[in-house]
Design brief:
Layout lengths: L9 H11 L4 H10 L4 H13 L5 H15 L4 H10 L4 H7 L5 H18 L5 H14 L4 H17 L10
Helix pairs in contact: 2-3, 7-8, 7-9, 8-9
Length: 169
């Protein structure tokens, strides 16, 4: 038994799907396939959306990376995994990730490290570094990047003036 179509056309369903957020070509194809539309209807709808600029995997990948780095920075590796999860083609992912230089990657990792280092301030220093390293690893940063950032963080701690305000706790 075929599912009843809830939209008047595949194009209407596609527009509804795009209303909440941008989508990739493959996500749109899968969504329309769930709507029980024919392959021809799906292809025509996707082509129409691409032609009108409403569906563009390259723009999607670029916007995704920019938003992600501005809201919750993660590594290039993690960004790649997330874009693959949205069915973005590999060549587009590779091109889009070119904006994430080693300097940007290290700066993002440092920002994340400093945030968690402050959050773990009640822990012993060695435990703080261990946990910060684990957080960076969970966001996909490489060992070399983590080592560099923790070293810089350690240098900052060594250079910090002694704080006598905690002597009576």
């Amino acid at each position: 038994m075929r599912k009843a179509k809830t939209q008047s056309s595949a194009y209407d369903m596609a527009l509804d799907y795009l209303t909440s957020k941008a989508r990739t070509v493959r996500e749109m194809e899968l969504r329309l396939d769930e709507g029980d539309y024919s392959e021809i209807e799906i292809m025509q709808t996707v082509d129409r959306l691409i032609g009108s600029g409403l569906l563009d995997d390259r723009k999607y990948a670029e916007a995704f990376i920019e938003t992600r780095l501005n809201t919750k920075p993660v590594s290039r590796r993690k960004l790649r995994e997330q874009l693959e999860g949205h069915f973005v083609p590999d060549d587009i992912i590779k091109d889009a990730l070119n904006v994430v230089s080693d300097d940007v990657e290290n700066a993002n990792a440092k920002s994340v490290a400093e945030k968690y280092f402050r959050q773990f301030s009640s822990l012993e220093l060695s435990e703080r570094f261990r946990r910060v390293g684990l957080r960076l690893a969970s966001r996909g940063y490489t060992y070399d990047c983590i080592k560099l950032v923790l070293s810089e963080l350690g240098d900052q701690v060594d250079d910090a003036p002694e704080d006598d305000s905690n002597d009576y706790e």
